[in-house]
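Lab notebook, design round three. We kept the backbone fixed and only want residue identities now. Task for the bench partner: fill in a sequence for the structure below.
Input structure tokens:
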């Protein structure tokens, strides 16, 4: 046993190794590399001065699934303000590999700007920089058995790192050799390679993405044999654009122009944005511009076909958005030391710690030279800031949105968790996501007839967002996304392809229970898009289901009672049934229209109402991307035209229609849902939003006018409130969406300021919006029973009725 000379500036440590046996050296693998219990600054001093040091290696090789047992924490002496401190924790026994959690006063800690956590083998290091009085507290560490160690090490550019290699067994003498990318032998002239007894390390003072990224192999050999380990280093770097084209291009009209843009360095993945005259090129904003944008790893092409004079301009390419540096970002990473003499100086206190004399009162003027700025540019501060700007949003998003699997969740309001969620039986559990609180009530009424241990309920707060077109700020601020990720136990960037990864979820199924109308299909599609965008492997595991309910029920006394699960199916039956008008028809606008008895019937017949979404092939992926990505607008138009032809032309031609939710259907593919159900939303939305050429009305407006015409002469001269007219018109015209949706329609029809209605149909009395706020009617709903308007319609005869709001 050989001990190094103690040094008060470093930890005194010791190698425990046996020298009596003669065996082949056995290296510690990636997940069990020995870490050095000293700071990087100490390591650099050691390299320059060749001071010998030693380490305590507390490794107990236990290969069974044994819980880790902590070794004693190193004691921490008093520290001065502004210094850096490294806390070390290691285990004395237990299975490997491990990961560690650090806590301060019982609160879990994570990587921040001042603190980092680095887990290596049986050691964990918590580094706290620039400490102050707020950092005083009790720090603790908890080891957790980790069965899935990382296969590579991700580091930031310009950072420092020590790559260690040590033997776990074997006899001396040991010879170490380092290789990069399996063929290039590293020499001590190119790299700082430290070799001491049974350990060798490569010290990177300042990592570079081009030179240091690669696969490193450490070979250890003696006269009895050899062994090796391999580690991959990935240096995260901000991209740099290279010029592949001249700054000015002269092209002839009608030709095709390809403009390339690439980066010469930087880490993937990358995204490119193209601009013309500082305006971003987006197809949906520039429908007349004929161009295509194709991106592949480090290269992006802007193709403009059929050039014309209007295409002239300044085109620019930006990678990963436009990064702007703020003065604070530079100031926080730069120290400037000034040595000068100032006359008549003034300070903020008697201790003279801070001078408050303004620079204009100096006897001289400090002018920084160009050489100073050029030398400052070379220290790498701007590259470091750009790299931090790029990865900061993703880091914040991961810290805010990535949850930890818990057996019970009590912090999410309105969540009714399944009793077995988060337990060993979590794969058998199903989370039912409902559309609002009213649907939540229906589920509570019906779920009593099934096993409550396996079903959880969570109502969404509103319509889901399209995550493909939302930015990180919108996603991080969306409460539904945050709650859904935590309830399901999802982890970003995780691939759910194995049974082990699926067991990490709190629920094995996600059941979407929305209204059966086109709006419900829209919400269902948005949730599918959310799962597909972040976890595309999850949709291949039959993870998503839908609970369908009748949209229309018809009955003829006791002899006939039938439920329809789509409007197209009902319309087909109505055309084939000559006496369909004699049947009693009930339209279920939403789940709230079902009674508690009906809700129990739905859950008792789970086989009929539970539909599983099935993944067949890449066409399912393409269908989802088609309707939710703004990059495929032209293909989306063709898809919608085909869907409309399918809806209208087949019934006219007498062709048989294949309805999506047939009684024998137990599952449907994602493509079937997009083409046959989700398309109904776009068709209905166009009908509701676009006026018809024959009368200029939308369906809601037409129903209001029709009801006013049908009123008798006595009623026509009576005053009526907006709320009353909306309710009467909805009942008389069989308006399926509720009278609250007719109220804004009536209010807008009563507006008479410039820019609203060409023909005055209503004479108003009361508040119906101002041109100042664009006629916004939201704030007027509360007074819908206090204002008046008068209806004037001339169709065959003049009718007038006073409308009171």
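Proposed sequence:
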């Amino acid at each position: 046993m050989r001990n190094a000379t103690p040094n008060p500036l470093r930890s005194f440590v010791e190698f425990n190794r046996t020298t009596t046996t003669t065996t082949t050296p056995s290296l510690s693998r990636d997940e069990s590399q020995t870490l050095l219990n000293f700071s990087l600054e100490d390591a650099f001093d050691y390299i320059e001065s060749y001071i010998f040091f030693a380490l305590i290696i507390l490794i107990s090789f236990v290969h069974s699934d044994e819980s880790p047992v902590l070794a004693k924490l190193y004691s921490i002496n008093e520290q001065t303000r502004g210094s850096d401190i490294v806390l070390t924790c290691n285990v004395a026994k237990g299975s490997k590999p491990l990961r560690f959690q650090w806590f301060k006063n019982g609160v879990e800690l994570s990587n921040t700007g001042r603190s980092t956590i680095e887990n290596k083998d049986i050691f964990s290091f918590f580094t706290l920089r620039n400490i102050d009085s707020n950092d005083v507290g009790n720090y603790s560490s908890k080891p957790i058995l980790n069965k899935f160690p990382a296969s590579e090490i991700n580091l930031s550019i310009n950072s420092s790192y020590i790559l260690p290699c040590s033997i776990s067994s074997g006899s001396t003498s040991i010879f170490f050799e380092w290789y990069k990318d399996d063929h290039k032998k590293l020499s001590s002239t190119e790299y700082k390679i430290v070799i001491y007894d049974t350990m060798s390390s490569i010290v990177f003072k300042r990592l570079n993405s081009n030179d240091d990224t690669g696969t490193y192999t450490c070979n250890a050999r003696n006269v009895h044999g050899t062994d090796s380990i391999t580690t991959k280093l990935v240096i995260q770097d901000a991209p740099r654009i290279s010029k592949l084209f001249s700054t000015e291009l002269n092209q002839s009209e009608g030709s095709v122009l390809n403009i390339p843009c690439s980066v010469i360095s930087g880490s993937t993945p990358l995204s490119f944005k193209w601009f013309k005259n500082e305006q971003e090129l987006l197809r949906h904003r520039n429908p007349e511009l004929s161009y295509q944008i194709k991106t592949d790893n480090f290269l992006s092409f802007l193709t403009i076909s059929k050039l014309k004079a209007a295409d002239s301009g300044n085109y620019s390419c930006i990678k990963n958005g436009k990064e702007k540096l703020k003065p604070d970002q530079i100031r926080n990473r730069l120290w400037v030391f000034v040595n000068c003499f100032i006359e008549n100086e003034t300070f903020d206190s008697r201790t003279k710690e801070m001078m408050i004399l303004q620079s204009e009162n100096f006897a001289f003027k400090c002018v920084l030279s160009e050489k100073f700025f050029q030398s400052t540019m070379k220290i790498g501060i701007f590259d470091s800031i750009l790299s931090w700007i790029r990865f900061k949003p993703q880091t914040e998003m991961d810290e805010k949105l990535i949850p930890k699997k818990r057996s019970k969740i009590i912090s999410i309001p309105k969540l009714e968790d399944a009793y077995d969620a988060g337990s060993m039986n979590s794969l058998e559990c199903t989370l039912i996501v409902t559309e609002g609180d009213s649907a939540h009530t229906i589920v509570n009424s019906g779920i009593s007839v099934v096993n409550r241990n396996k079903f959880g309920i969570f109502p969404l707060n509103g319509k889901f967002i399209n995550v493909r077109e939302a930015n990180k700020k919108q996603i991080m601020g969306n409460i539904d996304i945050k709650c859904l990720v935590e309830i399901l136990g999802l982890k970003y960037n995780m691939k759910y392809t194995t049974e082990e990864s699926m067991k990490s979820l709190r629920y094995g199924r996600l059941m979407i229970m929305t209204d059966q109308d086109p709006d419900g299909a829209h919400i269902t599609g948005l949730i599918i898009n959310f799962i597909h965008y972040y976890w595309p492997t999850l949709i291949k595991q039959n993870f998503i289901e839908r609970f369908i309910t009748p949209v229309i029920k018809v009955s003829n006394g006791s002899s006939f009672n039938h439920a329809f699960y789509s409007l197209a199916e009902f319309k087909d039956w109505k055309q084939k049934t000559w006496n369909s008008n004699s049947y009693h028809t009930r339209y279920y606008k939403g789940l709230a229209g079902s009674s508690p008895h009906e809700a129990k019937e739905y859950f008792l017949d789970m086989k009929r109402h539970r539909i599983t979404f099935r993944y067949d092939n890449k066409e399912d992926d393409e269908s989802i991307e088609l309707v939710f990505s703004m990059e495929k607008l032209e293909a989306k138009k063709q898809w919608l035209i085909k869907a409309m032809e399918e809806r209208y032309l087949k019934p006219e031609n007498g062709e048989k229609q294949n309805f999506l939710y047939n009684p024998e259907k137990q599952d449907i593919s994602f493509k079937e849902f997009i083409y046959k159900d989700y398309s109904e939303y776009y068709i209905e939305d166009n009908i509701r939003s676009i006026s018809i050429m024959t009368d200029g009305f939308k369906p809601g407006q037409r129903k209001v006018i029709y009801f006013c015409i049908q009123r008798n002469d006595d009623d026509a001269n009576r005053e009526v409130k907006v709320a009353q007219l909306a309710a009467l018109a909805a009942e008389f015209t069989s308006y399926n969406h509720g009278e609250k949706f007719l109220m804004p329609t009536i209010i807008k029809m009563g507006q008479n300021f410039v820019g609203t209605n060409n023909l005055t149909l209503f004479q108003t009395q009361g508040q119906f919006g101002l041109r100042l706020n664009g006629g916004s009617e939201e704030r007027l709903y509360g007074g819908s029973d206090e204002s008046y308007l008068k209806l004037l319609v001339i169709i065959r005869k003049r009718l007038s009725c006073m409308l009171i709001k």
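Keep this in mind before ordering anything: The chain has a mean pLDDT of 73.
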